[in-house]
Amino acid sequence: MRGRRRDRAGGDVHDGSSFRVGEARGHLLEWPEAIATETFDPWVLATTHPSAVLRAEDERQATYDALVADLRVAAKALKNKALKK
Asked: How many angstroms separate the CA atoms of 44 and 51, rounded?
């Protein structure tokens, strides 16, 4: 439960208490205005913490595959940014 609270709290910064990692994961979202910065890309990617794979037990492979899919979205976005420079 601790991890869920932390994930939800991070989501609260982005989209209020209605934010759900499971619904938003794998999609690039606009960087939250509550965390003003000029040094990062203007997007954020919702995903679960990697330790969720270890805790998944019966669904470990599916959880791992979902995490890898999320990271591929981020890698593609970063690669596209590098190609535009």
From this structure: 19
What's the domain range around 19?
Answer: 2-84
- Residue 84 corresponds to which tokens in the numbers above? 């535009």
DSSP letters, 10-55, are: HHHHHHGGG--HHHHTTSEEEPPTTS--SSS-SEEE----THHHHH
From first to last of the 85 residues of the chain, give the pLDDT tens digit. Answer: 334 434 444 444 545 567 777 777 888 887 777 777 776 677 888 888 899 999 999 999 999 999 999 999 999 988 887 667 6
Q: Which of 77, 18, 80 is nearest to 45 (CA)?
A: 77
